[in-house]
């Protein structure tokens, strides 16, 4: 699998204030979307997340988000090394994603920019 980059997850209390800080630090414009009850802003290599603690506590268990060329290829490679796919692949506003637990217990999200039907 080709890992193209990594995004860091940051839980914040005030998303609007945080966006200004991270836009300034990265020079990138925020892309905002909703994930359940959590408001998310992708800013450069950061995913800023704000929302109910019950939902954030689940998201905090994911170590990082890894951008890959193809989520389907990632599934095959992850299964080959004994990882458990615990969610997905599912479409998101920016591509498809899955969440996997590696054999060591680490949990990662994998995302691609493919839309359903492409490829």
TrEMBL record:
InterPro entries attached to this UniProt entry: Glyas_Bleomycin-R_OHBP_Dase, VOC_core
Domain VOC: 1-113
Protein name as it appears in the record: VOC domain-containing protein
């Amino acid at each position: 699998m080709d890992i193209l980059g990594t995004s860091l997850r940051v839980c914040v209390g005030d998303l609007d204030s945080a966006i200004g800080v991270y836009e300034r630090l990265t020079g990138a414009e925020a892309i905002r979307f909703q994930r359940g009850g959590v408001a998310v802003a992708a800013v450069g290599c950061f995913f800023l997340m704000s929302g109910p603690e019950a939902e954030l506590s689940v998201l905090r268990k994911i170590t990082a988000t890894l951008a890959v060329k193809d989520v389907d290829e990632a599934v095959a490679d992850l299964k080959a090394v004994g990882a458990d796919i615990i969610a997905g692949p599912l479409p998101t506003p920016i591509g498809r994603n899955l969440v996997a637990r590696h054999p060591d217990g680490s949990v990662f999200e994998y995302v691609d920019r493919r839309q359903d039907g492409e490829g």
